[in-house]
Design brief:
The chain is of the alpha+beta class. Helix content is about 60%, strand content about 10%. The protein has 16 helices and 6 strands.
Length: about 400
């Protein structure tokens, strides 16, 4: 039979003579003890008595690694699938213990070094030649690489399980926070603990387009909770007035029009969500424009709306049928005007109500000459008559004009 080429190979143990398996098997017990001693001495994380569940796991891992290596030399086609669980479990154990893989990987390297040195000694004493010894070295380190890869996989599996559990528990937490009627504070606290989430003193809901939810979430602190409710992106932001929150919200608003509900206690965040959702749905194309400088914080072509700065507009949207009836009643005299003339009279009426008919102040607001403002006032009086002087009528005119301005006069 032609000799197998001894170059680098994915499974270099295939080229080893059968007698090497017998030689290696003969030194497994003393090598196991030496590897365990070396690991305890050289890896600080494992510098403790190898006893209990931890010790049994390490001892089993070392012993089975050596035994499986012997089995692979004897029957390379048998594979090592059945023995992988030990090393997957070691990786999972490191993740669950809150450690990274550095210590375990160091232990694998120490095991490979000690095993190769003792295997080589046994083979030399038995007269094994240089080429099989070189292949044995290659086989030892390739095999250890496979064990280490198994542990990396086990570690990743455990991480995925933890993340999946965290997501499930956070979904349960979000459902409890948005419950109507509000959840019991004790139940909420227990669910939050299970989800590793600190219950804040204040919490606000943020509404965004569903398709932007993931992007918006990445712009916010990790403690913000995200979900989809009735086709709308929903985020629950702890301490929205806290340090750095304003900047985070402005960055998030670059991903789509957002509506921020009022800050409330966590058991009442469902109300914050209802208001945030109502405001976002009321402003699909940027209709909400309040007098507050902070009511609409623009970021590029996107916008952050705040419920607390748009309460009047939201009130009109929430009562749009009534607002529409008021507009139809109080602004009926403008119905027959051309669109351009109607817009001009609406602007004049709002300015008149704001400045109590002061032509100079109105002219400054409308960017026209005072004489033009006086002409418009005269025309407005022809159309609206005594409504401009009656307190109740003036109030309803304000409502009607503002409702029309934001599209709430349905």
């Amino acid at each position: 039979m032609p000799k197998k080429h001894l170059a680098l190979d994915d499974e270099p143990w295939r080229g080893l003579p059968a007698r090497v398996a017998d030689l290696v098997e003969g030194v497994i017990e003393p090598i196991t003890a030496e590897i365990l001693e070396s690991i305890a001495r050289e890896v600080p994380e494992y510098a403790r008595p190898l006893e209990g569940r931890f010790g049994r796991g390490i001892h089993r891992g070392v012993h089975e690694a050596l035994a499986q290596f012997v089995a692979l030399i004897r029957d390379p086609d048998a594979g090592r699938e059945s023995g992988r669980e030990v090393y997957l479990a070691l990786g999972r154990g490191e993740q669950r213990a809150g450690r990274n893989l550095d210590s375990l990987q160091a232990a694998y390297r120490i095991g490979a070094r000690v095993a190769w040195r003792r295997f080589a000694d046994a083979c030399r004493r038995a007269g094994v030649g240089a080429e099989p010894l070189a292949l044995l070295a290659e086989a030892v380190f390739a095999y250890i690489d496979e064990l280490a890869a198994d542990s990396v996989e086990g570690y990743a599996q455990a991480q995925a399980e933890v993340e999946d559990l965290r997501r499930r528990r956070r979904r349960e937490l979000i459902a409890l926070l948005l419950a109507d009627p509000p959840a019991d504070a004790a139940d909420l606290a227990a669910t939050a603990r299970a989800a590793s989430w600190d219950v804040p003193a204040g919490l606000a809901a943020l509404a965004c387009p569903e398709e932007a939810l993931a992007r918006v979430s990445r712009r916010l602190p990790p403690e913000a909770l995200a979900t989809v409710v009735d086709g709308e992106g929903c985020l629950l932001l702890p301490d929205p007035e806290g340090p750095g929150r304003a900047e985070a919200l402005e960055r998030a608003a670059a991903e789509g029009t957002l509506a921020l509900g009022p800050t409330v206690t966590p058991t009442h965040v469902a109300e914050s969500w209802r208001l945030a959702l109502a405001l976002r749905r009321a402003d699909p194309a940027g209709a909400v424009t309040t007098g507050s400088a902070t009511g609409r914080a623009s970021t590029g072509s996107r916008t952050l709306l705040r419920v607390d700065d748009n309460l009047a507009a939201l009130l009109l949207f929430e009562s749009r049928e009534l607002a529409g009836r008021i507009a139809a009643r109080r602004l009926a005299a403008l119905a027959d005007l051309t669109p351009k003339a109607r817009a001009r009279m609406r602007e004049t009426a709002l300015a008149h109500l704001r400045h109590d008919g002061n032509a100079v102040a109105m002219a400054a607001e409308m960017h026209v000459h005072p004489q033009t403002a006086r002409y418009r006032i005269a025309r407005l009086r022809e159309l609206l008559g005594d409504q401009l002087d009656d307190p109740d009528a003036r109030f309803e005119l304000q409502l009607a004009l503002r409702a029309e301005a934001i599209g709430a006069a349905a």
